[in-house]
Amino acid sequence: MLMDGREQETPEQPGDPGKPEDFEQPGDFGKPGEPEKSAEPEKSAGPEKSAGPRVPPEELIVAAEQMLRYVRHSARTGGLSTAASSALARLSREGPRRLTGLARAEGVSQPGMTQLVTRLERAGLVRRTAAAGDGRGVLVELTGTGLEVLESRRAERARALQHLVDRLTEPERQAVETALLALARVIESRPGGL
Known about the structure:
The chain is mostly helical. The protein is 48% helix and 9% strand. It is elongated and about 60 Å long.
């Protein structure tokens, strides 16, 4: 069923390798139908003309959540939780961080981050080191093993995303690539980034 209530015909593809059966599949997203003709022409904010009515943000967020869930659940290396994977990714991008700063950046409590870092440390994925110039300060940093696990998980997610993209038409593929890169640029340019 498409978001607008119409039935969608999708060919079955049994035995599709690498496709977790418990998650939404690429065909579940549906394709938008022909745009309805509006009595009033749509107004454009810029010099480019609109290709038709805009998709409501609620439908876009549902599609984004389905895609993220599918891609996120494809990463199985290390058996990491979403919170652990996110913390490792931040350490990889930003380098060693104080525990308090890592907790704040990840939007969790300091006790919660302390527990997470302890588990990651026991697994050999991070280590605590003394902060230079501050005898009491402790930094959390990624280990070589942590980086290997993170890279394996990224490769698994990239394969899952590629599996989705391979099922798109060429114009859809180009639109998705353009949109994802544009959204990443907007997020990175915001004060505070992610």
